[in-house]
């Protein structure tokens, strides 16, 4: 199991590109697009997340706009689950619930359809990157506001130094690659 | 085959919600979020697109931000292909090529990483909706600018009255649901 984890981390890191000073000076951006375009790396990424969630009972994958849509939708389809988008403000056509939060590069607001998840249902929240945890915590707030439960979080990349996990409460968090 | 097509169209239409006057008065928005959250409808949608592309030879699925990420990434993973995002301007971290175009609700600019597809490679372009075809044609322009070939287009929904297909040239276009 630990060997598998090390193997997938090495495989994916080889396909993640470092972009210095993006989107702001001093930030090292981890660009997953070379990984996404590589069929075996992308497939291994989706398989690994699905495997790590295989013992978690949940109804929906919640994917956070926009890279979280790529990872989340593929995992949802692979696992036979429904997919629920959490979007930036003003992008969803039906009645929404919204929340504001601070993130690494400024303030942000995210929304979810008010009927996106049923009271008593359960979800896993997926995004490409766990940085400060602000976006994931905001998505969790929306899910709980709708009366549903967050059973786990999954990310491709986790930036260890920002301690994002501390904002996600007592819920299992998995990430395939750490920096 | 025609029976299958009619079956999938009926199944998906039952899960697509009509939102009048969104995003502008007079526009009937076709909201696929109830379909996405339904595991069997979402699964059937991805299976149907994958089946219709099964005889097409291509290297990458190109998904158009943002709902095209949801459909495109799931299809790419299902078919064992790589995924390439075409994004709104200013969202991609590496060097990009861009193009401007007109769409139903105003002007827009889309970008792709300059190394997203190799010269001589081939792609299928996927989005949730074919309306005027402006966005898909812009994505196609980017692919061709990079020296790659567009072998097909796939959409969940096609709005027949807007004749989007006429802008996509002599390339196979498939859509699961028509209005």
How would the blueprint of this fold be written?
Two copies of one chain form a homodimer.
Chain A: H1 2-13, E1 17-20, E2 28-31, H2 33-37, H3 39-52, E3 60-64, H4 67-79, E4 82-88, E5 96-103, E6 106-113, E7 122-130, H5 134-145, E8 149-158, E9 173-178
Parallel strand pairs in A: 3-4, 3-7, 7-8, 8-9
Antiparallel strand pairs in A: 1-2, 4-6, 5-6
Helix pairs in contact in A: 1-3, 3-4
What does it look like?
The structure is a homodimer of 179-residue chains. With 179 residues, the first copy, chain A, is α/β, with parallel strands linked by helices. Chain A has a single domain (2-178), classed as Rossmann fold (3-Layer(aba) Sandwich), CATH 3.40.50.2020. Chain A is built from 5 helices and 9 strands, in the order H-E-E-H-H-E-H-E-E-E-E-H-E-E. In chain A, the strands form 2 sheets. A 7-stranded mixed beta sheet of chain A has the order 5-6-4-3-7-8-9, with helices on both faces. In chain A, helix 1 (2-13) packs antiparallel against helix 3 (39-52) and helix 3 (39-52) packs across helix 4. The first copy, chain A, is globular. Chains A and B meet through helix 2, helix 3, helix 4 and strand 4 of A and helix 2, helix 3, helix 4 and strand 4 of B.
């Amino acid at each position: 199991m630990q060997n598998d984890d090390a193997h997938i981390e090495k495989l994916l890191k080889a396909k993640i590109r470092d972009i210095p000073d993006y989107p702001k000076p001093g930030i090292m951006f981890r660009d997953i697009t070379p990984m996404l375009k590589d069929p075996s790396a992308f497939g291994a990424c989706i398989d690994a997340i699905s495997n790590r969630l295989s013992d978690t009972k949940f109804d929906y994958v919640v994917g956070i706009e926009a890279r979280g849509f790529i990872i989340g939708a593929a995992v949802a389809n692979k696992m036979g689950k429904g997919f629920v988008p959490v979007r930036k403000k003003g992008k969803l056509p039906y009645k929404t619930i919204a929340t504001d939060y601070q993130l690494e590069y400024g303030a942000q607001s995210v929304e979810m359809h008010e009927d996106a998840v049923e009271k008593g249902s359960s979800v896993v929240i997926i995004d490409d990157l766990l940085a400060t945890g602000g976006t994931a915590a905001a998505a969790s707030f929306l899910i709980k506001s709708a009366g549903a439960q967050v059973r786990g979080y999954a990310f491709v990349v986790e930036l260890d130094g920002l301690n994002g996990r501390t904002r996600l409460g007592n819920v299992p968090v998995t990430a395939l690659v750490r920096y």
